[in-house]
């Protein structure tokens, strides 16, 4: 999680806990994923392939999985991420983007 520390520290205080919890959970649950900051967003990479990224907006945390979630492991990661975070607020999104309030 050291890769994400500066990113989290720069977030508004009201978002730091939620974002830290979600990123830490993914890093702990999927230790094989590499952690990177690209395009000012925390993301997880597997063997050089983008898997999932996050961005913080004023009223939600956006979750962007790789393309349409079509692989079992990606679907599992996405489902678990959402269930871990959605108890914090509502859920909204599209086919390629999920917004957690």
Question: Would you kindly provide a brief summary of this structure?
Answer:
With 101 residues, the protein is an alpha+beta fold. Helix content is 36%, strand content 30%. The chain has a six-stranded antiparallel sheet, with helices on one face.
Would you spell out the secondary-structure blueprint of this structure?
Layout: H1 5-9, H2 13-29, E1 34-38, E2 41-46, E3 49-56, E4 61-65, H3 72-85, E5 91-93, E6 98-100
Antiparallel strand pairs: 1-2, 2-3, 3-4, 4-6, 5-6
Helix pairs in contact: 2-3
Describe this structure in words.
This protein is of the alpha+beta class. The protein has one domain: Aspartate Aminotransferase, domain 1 (Alpha-Beta Complex), CATH 3.90.1150. 36% of the residues lie in helices and 30% in strands. It has helices spanning 5-9, 13-29, 72-85, and strands at residues 34-38, 41-46, 49-56, 61-65, 91-93, 98-100. A six-stranded antiparallel beta sheet has the order 1-2-3-4-6-5, with helices on one face. Strand 5 and strand 6 (98-100) form a beta hairpin. It is globular. The two termini are 23 Å apart. The model is unreliable at 88-96 (pLDDT under 50). This is YdhG-like domain-containing protein. Residues 16-65 form the YdhG-like domain. It comes from Brochothrix campestris FSL F6-1037.
């Amino acid at each position: 999680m050291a890769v994400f520390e500066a990113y989290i520290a720069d977030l508004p205080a009201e978002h730091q806990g939620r974002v830290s919890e979600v990123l830490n959970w993914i890093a702990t649950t999927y230790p094989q994923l590499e952690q990177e900051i690209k395009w000012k967003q925390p993301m997880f990479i597997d063997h050089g392939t983008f898997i999932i990224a996050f961005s913080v907006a004023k009223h939600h945390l956006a979750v962007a999985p790789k393309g349409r979630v079509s692989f079992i492991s990606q679907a599992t990661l996405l489902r678990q991420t959402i269930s871990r975070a959605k108890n914090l607020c509502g859920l909204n999104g599209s086919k390629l983007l999920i917004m957690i309030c």
